[in-house]
Specification:
352 residues; Rossmann fold; 15% strand; binds pyridoxal-5'-phosphate
Length: 352
């Protein structure tokens, strides 16, 4: 059965949480873009989730993941991602806030140039994280190199633990049930904000990668009975749709069982969009670049080439295709990542 906001908050409050971000993040109406497109568009500013200029969706997950790590007495935390991973950078600063040593295993999907270190990798360096770059060796796939990075991380954790440290394992993308609790809590935050604004969002668009955000949003939707909100998850990388939806559904169920209560997620409501990720992860698309320019030039706001630009392009395609009814309130959930605007040129693409 769906919970009231108060009941949901009471359950969420039982889990350990480290206060890391600025919440609630603002919701703004995109007046100029709405007028230009004949739609009613809003944006949820998780790019402003704090605690510095470089917010993003991972802050919500890290509040719970590192909340648990602090409770466990962690001295170090290891996580994984690409060399320009937003998650890795956000984990590194969040660890610093909590006095935990950050250790990063970064797969060189787009190989960094040692003489020209940019964007998140530069911030990881400024933060003094212990950084291990894992190249994709000849004959290896990206997934092979990633699997190797997990083995290297596990070995480093074993070494540290044997020496008397306590090493927390933070999954890639923060994608675990505990991490996704952060986005179930975010749906409660959204419900409170939309109640105060006196409106309902018929559609929520967001970028999906590891699936942790998507699972959390669906967990929150089920927990609060927000059946009138369609969540449209735009993939930032290629996926096998059936396997991905199975994975996210499983994660959603695990998230709900961690929170408690008896809400069940609706698998049929999980909408994965695979029409925007091309030509590849960390490879810019013409539609994504156009979305970056359009939002900047109508609203003065920045989305990024890897995640949010492509998700916004999915929303724009639905307006253009007549899928969104005029008057339908649409929320674009900005999940951060604009540091990619300062990344290697092959990640950025043509945005000017
Ligand atoms: C900016 C941005 N948006 C969206 C996502 C996707 O989130 P998730 O990995 O939870 O699917 C990520 C991380 O992967 C991200 O960095």
């Amino acid at each position: 059965m769906a919970l009231t906001l108060q009941e949901a908050r009471a359950l969420l409050d039982r889990l350990p949480r480290a206060a890391l971000g600025f919440f609630p993040t603002p919701i703004m109406r995109l007046d100029r873009l709405s007028d230009a497109l004949g739609a009613s568009l809003y944006i949820k500013r998780d790019d402003c989730s704090g605690v510095n200029l470089f917010g993003g969706n991972k802050v919500r997950k890290l509040e719970y993941l590192l909340g648990q790590a602090v409770r466990d007495g962690a001295t170090h935390a290891i996580t994984y991602g690409a060399t320009q991973s937003n998650h890795a950078m956000e984990t590194a600063w969040a660890c610093r806030r909590l006095g935990i040593q950050p250790i990063l295993y970064l797969t060189a999907v787009v190989p960094p140039r040692p003489e020209d270190v940019r964007a998140n990798l530069l911030l990881d360096r400024v933060l003094g994280a212990e950084i291990h770059i894992v190249p994709i060796e000849p004959g290896e796939t990206e997934a092979d190199a990633e699997a190797r990075s997990f083995e290297m991380g596990a070995a480093r954790a074993a070494e540290l633990n044997a020496a008397g440290s306590k090493c927390a394992d933070i999954p890639m993308g923060g994608a675990s049930a505990l991490g996704s609790v952060g986005f179930a809590a975010a749906m409660a935050e959204l419900r409170a904000q939309s109640d105060a604004m006196g409106l309902r969002f018929a559609r929520i668009y967001h970028s999906t990668g590891t699936g942790g955000t998507m699972a959390g949003l669906h967990a929150g939707r089920a927990m609060l009975g927000m059946d009138d909100a369609r969540i449209i998850s735009v993939a930032a990388s290629p996926k096998d749709a059936a396997a991905y939806l199975d994975k996210v559904y499983g994660l959603t169920r695990a998230t709900l069982s961690l929170i408690g209560g008896d809400a069940a997620p609706d698998k049929a409501a999980m909408q994965l969009r695979l029409d925007q990720w091309q030509p590849g992860y960390e490879r810019p698309s013409a539609a994504g670049s156009a979305a970056i320019r359009l939002l900047a030039r109508t609203e003065g706001l920045f989305v990024d080439p890897v995640y949010t630009g492509k998700a916004l392009a999915g929303l724009l395609a639905d307006i253009e295709g007549g899928d969104i009814r005029p008057g339908e309130n649409v929320l674009f959930w900005h999940t951060g990542g604009a540091t990619a605007l300062f990344a290697e040129p092959e990640i950025l693409g043509e945005v000017t």
